[in-house]
Amino acid sequence: MQGINSYKIIFAAAALLLSGLAAAEDVGGDQASVWAVVERQWNAVEDGDKKWIDQLLAADFSGWPKTSPAPRNKASTKMWNRFNESQGKLVAHELYPLAIIVHGDVALAHYLYTSAYKNKDGEVDMNNGRYSDVLVRTDDGWQFLSWHGGNDE
Fold it and tell me: Which stretches of the chain are assigned E, i.e. beta strand?
C-alpha cells in the first residue's frame, strides 16, 4: 500500500509541475499576443489602414500622447488620426520592446521606437520616442485601453 501512495504523490507532483509549466507558457503566449497587437497598430498606420482604430482600441479607450494637452478618447483619436493623414504619412518604423507584463486580462507594454514621417511637402522627419501601452483582453482579442508616450525631443 505504501508503494501505491508514493506513486500517487509522485503523480500529483508531476501533475502540479506540468500545470505550472502550462500556465507559464500561457503568460509567454499572452506576451507574444500583446506584442503582436502593438506591432499591428504601427503597421496599420504605416499601411494607411483606416480601420485600425475601430478594431484595436477598446470602446472606453483613453490615451494621452505627449503632443496632446489632455487624454484622447476613441473618437478624438480617430479625428486626429485623420488630420495627421492629411499632413503626411508614416513611411518607416522600428519598435524595440523593453517589457511586457500580463496580469490576467490586462497587459502593459513598454517600448522604444524609431520612425520616419514624410510630410505633404515630401520632407522626411526622423524621430525616436517611447510608449507605454495598456491593453485589455476582450472577446475580440487584445485591445488598447490606454497609451502614453511620443517623441523624445
Answer: 62-65, 72-73, 88-103, 106-119, 124-138, 141-151
- Listed in sequence order, the DSSP H helices in 48-145 are 52-56, 74-87
pLDDT at 11: 42
Q: Are 46 and 130 in contact (CB under 8 A)?
A: no
Q: Which helix (H) or strand (E) holds 21?
A: helix 2-47
Give pLDDT tens digits for 88-116. 999 999 999 999 999 999 999 999 999 99
The distance from CA 71 to its chain's CA centroid, rounded to whole angstroms, is: 18
Residue 12 counted as domain residue: no
**pTM given for the model:** 0.81
41: domain CATH number? Answer: 3.10.450.50
- 97 DSSP assignment: E
Q: What tens digit of pLDDT does each residue of 61-73 get?
A: 999 999 999 999 9
What is the number of domains present in the chain? 1
